[in-house]
Prior knowledge:
Elements: H1 2-26, H2 34-55, H3 67-87, E1 90-96, E2 104-109, H4 122-131, E3 135-139, H5 150-160, E4 166-169, H6 172-177, H7 182-191, E5 194-195, E6 199-202, E7 207-210, E8 231-234, H8 241-246, E9 251-254, E10 263-264, E11 268-269, E12 284-288, E13 291-295, E14 313-319
Parallel strand pairs: 1-14, 2-3, 3-4, 4-5, 7-8, 8-9, 9-13
Antiparallel strand pairs: 2-14, 6-7, 10-11, 12-13
Helix pairs in contact: 1-2, 2-3, 5-7
Amino acid sequence: xxxxxxxxxxxxxxxxxxxxxxxxxxxxxxxxxxxxxxxxxxxxxxxxxxxxxxxxxxxxxxxxxxxxxxxxxxxxxxxxxxxxxxxxxxxxxxxxxxxxxxxxxxxxxxxxxxxxxxxxxxxxxxxxxxxxxxxxxxxxxxxxxxxxxxxxxxxxxxxxxxxxxxxxxxxxxxxxxxxxxxxxxxxxxxxxxxxxxxxxxxxxxxxxxxxxxxxxxxxxxxxxxxxxxxxxxxxxxxxxxxxxxxxxxxxxxxxxxxxxxxxxxxxxxxxxxxxxxxxxxxxxxxxxxxxxxxxxxxxxxxxxxxxxxxxxxxxxxxxx
Length: 320
């Protein structure tokens, strides 16, 4: 959404500037420098600049401004590609053998970041329903600090709880938002969402545990549980996998890395949220000395509003 707001802003400014320049010409006032007019076209305002040229019958029909319609075509192509890359939802399926008596289907939702997937999140919910999950787990960053919108997240929660039981742990964005999350947390609980920050539930044949993002540097141990049962752990940040393993996790479901934003074939994800270039862990299921670490590419974006070769991902894990 940040990219959308930027494009709206720069195109509006470009259109107004071209109109203002024409007005100055009619009144014999000082004109807007041509370099300034072209600058706004180059930084994403080419559509507004082109419309300004055509609408105001602007002097910029002269040769040096022929670059504007070229930039406009390129901008439209890039926008279409970016929209497809950012909103084309895919499902990744994994299988894990933990020795359960019956198969368990988990749908993992991570890093929604207020991303919009249809009215009332209908496209996302349809994909989840298609997976027929036994449980839905949310591994943090359901909202975003930079463009917080609780209504989008609430729409998703209201639909998800109708499909399967929902379990939730917080991510770094919930921590950053702070007390403004409290009312939303109350709403989530009222809808039946079960919070697992720094606690666990004995699910009968397995333990479902969670760790909140604010506890990653201080959490030591859970209240003792039956360690003969396999432990499925929900956490947000994958780089803390030694902690999850030490806490007894057999399977850890994480997110946070957004797939490295841009995935280069043969090289992997380009950058982590901590600005580590080409992180070793950025997606998929990884064997960490016997513990299976699933890293969701997530659904939304935050500071970097671009995904390339990195579609929004819904994770489905079948545990046996």
